[in-house]
Write a structure and sequence with these properties.
Nuclear Transport Factor 2, Chain: A; single chain; 25 helices
Length: 849
């Protein structure tokens, strides 16, 4: 919290009248202050002062007693630490001062500093800890000092009287007044529409619809920056003329300097991997497409690596700023332009072509929460139009079952990318791509693998009516039919790839969580136990989202360049936000909705999977159960009954703001939980933590392993499947593999997409995983410590179960033909020390990349 500096207040008490200045008439409180070292800067030193607020009321001010200032003194015993600086501090207080409950810190240095923690040694009592992890800006910028509360949590009604006003002022200050452009030192949380994706000042081709605030384009809210409007459209926020890495996010939401450095380093490494092959292609003839799979394989490590020659250096120097160019040259010498080898081709280079692997990735790949059990045959659109897939296409491929028998046993599945794409296809294909709306049916075999049955690819009728033109493809063991089947699978994979990136990844994790973060900061005091519970699950999310809006999601950004929806990408995600329901985002509810589980009160998760060899579902339910148990135990410490929840004014304001503002376009929906019971609070918090941790990990950190090899997860198609009797069909017959490669994205899009995937899949060294905290003193509550140990132990048991499942040869979907063990929901809680790089496992607490 921020509060007026003591040198600006005349009414604060003097805590040491003359009669109390003898040694036996005051108590000494000693403390330790830890700050992060900053490159090229000294620490705050004596330029920073600290005062402590007591939990005892000062009768003169009717607020907490306030000590005199203490000055920081460097602790020389910690000078060997290269990452932090430790200071000692001493306070002299009256005997009746009471227990400290808050700190007031004033920074009179010319630079900000990052305060990690403060510990106070209280005579005849336990130490008081303050987990701060926040920037403290100079008083000449903020005009006010910073208040930090101790690690002790209080529900609003239980707050010590001496701290009530501080608690209320903290929240008022964090909400701001919705005016002006935000400055980097301002800790202001507010909402805005997604009105910063387009750039109308650059011309009509850079205009994008505003997302949020309308029935046509509903969307979750983002953090407000307050940048001025563009010249051409006052409703659209202006954008800088160059890529902006300094877009405003509140200071406490920013990457640490170490993480930003690491993020930029990883990005430069990916730039090297992308730019060198791309630049070399300019010197080759007919370099728009890869000529062979071997040529594409040469992008990856394990083959001769091209180095920068003078022609390439000259070209790259024109493409990038001097500072970045220097880093590229240095990096290229250390690792000259080779992407790491993706898992999908590391053991079996041909596994991606296998139908069984294709089906397995719907259960254990990076988009495993889309497939569902078919409810009626043939499939029917929401408009009532029946699919072109008939009984004749599938009835002889059901391992002896009839269609009715397979349907009765819930053994026919569908991967459906039809209804939501069809209204967009004319506009999307008008950009020069060749995209179908797709349906794919699969059969659950006795060994629980999925066998593809048929693929339907549809286009809008050319007569402008509501009709469709559809083609159906079925598996074939060899020949031209097999090659056509591979083309049809590629079109399905293209649709699934874009759904994964736009909907499952961006919308369903990054975008929907941001309003929860803003509401938590604005409505739940840092003293609130639910704020303390949720805080680790929000780390860096607003910053990565801001960078995404600036670089990836914006008009002509990386996503529009690499994904087939192009300029309609974010508009498409808005259309699918219309279907989003918070109450269906918890894993058990999602599995039931997709008819992959049934209610079973005898199971710890409350549901039973339709079949046990569903890696995402099986591991996910174990993680879900561990999270819900932890949340239930935690909430039960602070809320004794339902009335405690309904009477918590901060929780009620928080939940109301999420529904009415943060997700305001869905404020009238009836499915929102009523925040009047402890069970509803637990379900809400469990769902939110699941989304921010396990769900995001399951769809993010396996991206390079599966999508790093573009033929396995292509992102657009440049050709339709050829019709017999056409010139394209003749081209296809002459060389099916070459036609396949020409159908996929060109070199530029391919390498750019792989580079993006490499960055997104990389774990940063400062990540903190579920069941872990960045500080051992994050709470002073012994009961919370005890149940957190239980949570960590439960997760470590889940790790053992996952490893046992991966060793079980009868579970075919745990490895598949590609021999990739399913580790995307392996918590990695038991690891000690930082882990970084592309590991394909681990569940960080938050959406931090």
């Amino acid at each position: 919290m921020e509060f007026e500096s003591p040198n600006m207040q005349q009414s604060w008490p003097t805590c040491f009248p003359a009669c109390l200045k003898t040694a036996h008439q005051f108590h000494v409180i000693k403390g330790k202050v830890v700050v992060r070292r900053s490159l090229g800067r000294s620490g705050p030193g004596k330029s920073a002062s600290v005062q402590i607020y007591s939990t005892q009321v000062d009768t003169n001010t009717e607020t907490g007693k306030l000590s005199k200032r203490g000055r920081l003194r460097k602790d020389k015993s910690n000078e060997h630490d290269t990452s932090t600086i430790t200071y000692r501090i001493t306070f002299h207080v009256e005997p009746q001062f009471g227990i400290p409950g808050a700190l007031l810190i004033t920074n009179q240095h010319k630079h900000e500093f990052f305060l990690i923690s403060v510990m106070l040694d209280i005579p005849n009592s336990r130490d008081i800890h303050f987990d701060c992890n926040s920037w403290v800006y100079p008083i000449h910028k903020t005009k006010i000092g910073r208040v930090f509360f101790s690690n002790k949590c209080y529900l609003p009604d239980h707050t010590p009287e001496a701290l009530r006003e501080l608690r209320e002022n903290e929240l008022i200050g964090l909400r701001g007044d919705r005016t002006g452009e935000r400055k980097e030192w301002e800790r202001i949380y507010d909402y805005d529409y997604y009105n910063d994706l387009g750039n109308p000042d650059k011309g009509w081709s850079h205009v994008r619809p505003i997302l949020g605030g309308s029935n046509e384009h509903p969307y979750p809210r983002r953090g407000r920056t307050g940048r001025p409007p563009s010249n051409e459209d006052v409703r659209t926020e202006s954008r800088p003329s160059i890529i902006n890495l300094d877009i405003y996010v509140p200071p406490d939401e920013r990457f640490s300097p170490r993480k930003m450095s690491e993020f930029l380093s990883n990005s430069i490494q990916a730039i090297v991997h992308f730019l060198i092959p791309e630049a070399k292609s300019f010197f080759q003839k007919d370099s728009n497409s890869f000529e062979s799979f071997d040529e594409m394989r040469n992008m990856f490590s394990g083959s001769a690596a091209p180095a920068l020659d003078r022609r390439l250096e000259a070209m790259l120097k024109r493409l990038v700023p001097d500072k970045v160019f220097g880093e590229i040259v240095r990096t290229s010498k250390e690792n000259p332009g080779k992407f790491p080898l993706p898992q999908i081709i590391s053991v079996n280079e041909l596994a991606w072509r296998d139908d069984e692997e294709f089906g397995r990735e719907m259960l254990a790949g990076i988009n495993p929460a889309v497939i569902r059990s078919l409810e009626s045959f043939p499939p029917i659109s929401k408009s009532g139009k029946r699919s072109s897939i008939t009984a004749a296409h599938i009835e002889n491929n059901l391992d002896g079952l009839t269609i009715k028998g397979a349907m009765d046993q819930w053994r026919i599945f569908i991967l459906d990318h039809h209804d939501y794409l069809m209204p967009f296809l004319d506009r999307i294909n008008g950009q020069g791509v060749c995209i179908y709306a797709s349906r794919m049916l699969l059969f659950l075999r006795d060994n629980c693998t999925l066998k593809p049955l048929a693929i339907e690819l549809s286009l809008p009728a050319s007569d402008g009516e509501d009709g469709e033109i559809s083609r159906v493809f079925v598996p074939a063991p060899e020949g031209m039919e097999r090659a056509l089947w591979q083309l049809a699978k590629a079109h399905v994979a293209v649709n699934d790839s874009s759904h994964h990136q736009l909907i499952s990844h961006w919308l369903h994790t990054h975008a929907v969580v941001e309003p929860f973060i803003i509401a938590t900061r604005r409505q739940l005091s840092s003293m609130h136990p639910i704020h303390k519970l949720l805080n680790p699950h929000f780390k860096d999310t607003m910053h990565i989202n801001a960078l995404a809006r600036s670089i990836i999601l914006s008009a002509d950004g990386i996503l529009e360049r690499t994904m087939f929806p192009g300029k309609f990408s974010m508009e498409l995600s808005s259309a699918l936000y219309k279907q989003w329901r918070f109450d269906e985002q918890g894993l058990p509810a999602d599995l039931i909705k997709r008819r992959l589980a049934v209610v079973d009160s005898g199971q710890p998760s409350g549901v039973r999977l339709l079949f046990k060899d569903y890696p995402y579902g099986a591991d996910g339910l174990d993680i879900w159960t561990a999270i819900k148990t932890w949340v239930s135990d935690y909430c039960s410490i602070f809320y004794l009954d339902d009335n405690a929840v309904s009477s918590d004014n901060e929780i009620q304001a928080w939940w109301n703001e999420i529904r009415q503002v943060g997700h305001g376009d869905k404020s009238d929906e009836q499915w929102w939980y009523q925040m009047n019971t402890l069970s509803n609070l637990i379900q809400t918090l469990t769902t939110l933590i699941w989304i921010a941790s396990a769900l995001h990990a399951s769809i993010n950190f396996g991206q390079y392993g599966y999508a790093g090899y573009p033929p396995n997860r292509p992102t657009m198609c440049r050709k339709f499947i050829p019709e017999e009797g056409t010139l394209e069909y003749a081209e296809f017959l002459e060389d099916p593999d070459k036609y396949y490669l020409k159908m996929l994205p060109d070199r530029f899009v391919t390498t750019l997409g792989v580079a993006l995937t490499e960055v997104l899949s990389t774990h940063m060294s400062d990540e903190v995983y579920v069941g872990q905290r960045s500080s051992s003193e994050w709470t002073d509550n012994d009961d919370v410590c005890r149940i957190f140990d239980k949570f960590r132990n439960n997760l470590e048991e889940v790790e053992k179960v996952i490893m046992e499942r991966n060793r079980n040869a009868s579970l075919k979907n745990r490895l598949g033909p590609a021999r990739i063990p399913y580790m995307l929901l392996y918590p990695d809680t038991s690891k000690v020390g930082p882990t970084k790089g592309i590991t394909g496992k681990g569940i960080p607490n938050s959406i931090s990349i």
